[in-house]
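Narrative of activities, Objective 1.

The group set out to show that a structural description can be obtained from nothing but a protein's sequence at a throughput compatible with the screening campaign. Below is one input-output pair from the validation batch, recorded exactly as produced.
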Amino acid sequence: MLKPVIITLFAIFGISTIATGQSSLAQEVGIIFGPVVFQSDYGQRNNFDTNIGNTGFGVGIVHFINFSANNNRESFFTEHFKVRSELSFNKTNLEHFGYWVEREKFKNLVQHLRAMHGSSTLVNLGAQLEYSPFMKIHDFENTIGGFSPYVSVGFQVSYYNTKVDSRLGTLGLPENTFPKYLTPSDGRPYGFSSESGVVASITAGVGVHYKLTTMSDLMFEARYQGFSSDWVDGLNPNKDLYKENKSNDSQVWFNVGYIYYLEF
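Output recorded for this entry:
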């Protein structure tokens, strides 16, 4: 199952290696890190306690292909776009939060939900196209203390490992499992699954580069990542019966980065 990840890894870094040999291209490398808000079938959607409680942490390395080298002919594309490749890791511990869990304290109806917990670990590999609409790349590179806002779109391939458990005992037994997770779903015997797999995703982000020194930047970014599967968190109740769980898993990563310019 790691084959698609390995192929994508060689493809991205192969492109980067070829680009290094082109004198018209500049290279940047960096590290990014920050909290990851996982949006899944755990907890109540759009609930503050769920968003805060199901927050993990991510870290990654990034590589930029900068087309705005000094000997490159200036154009709108070279002065406003960069290609960014990324290898990152994030992990989130997951619990049920929100109204349906809190009211059980009084009615003793959903103790199984309070006892259910899990985790999702991802290794992400992908690429994005960054567009800086307000400032030319050359102007930004020569303005220490300058800000360059940007938007980005891209794709990623992720290897995920998810675990689901209950403090009441073995999941799958009626006395330990909330009823809707006992129904078969999407080829699995239950609406939960501890498993590993490969999943694709699309990304969209907004951020800003800050010119720290001649050869380095700081980066601040908020990025959405929508997965092509609903099993990344380990929960996927049968969608024909439980319409409230129709959305695939996603996450929002708020990261800070340090970027260093390489000289070739």
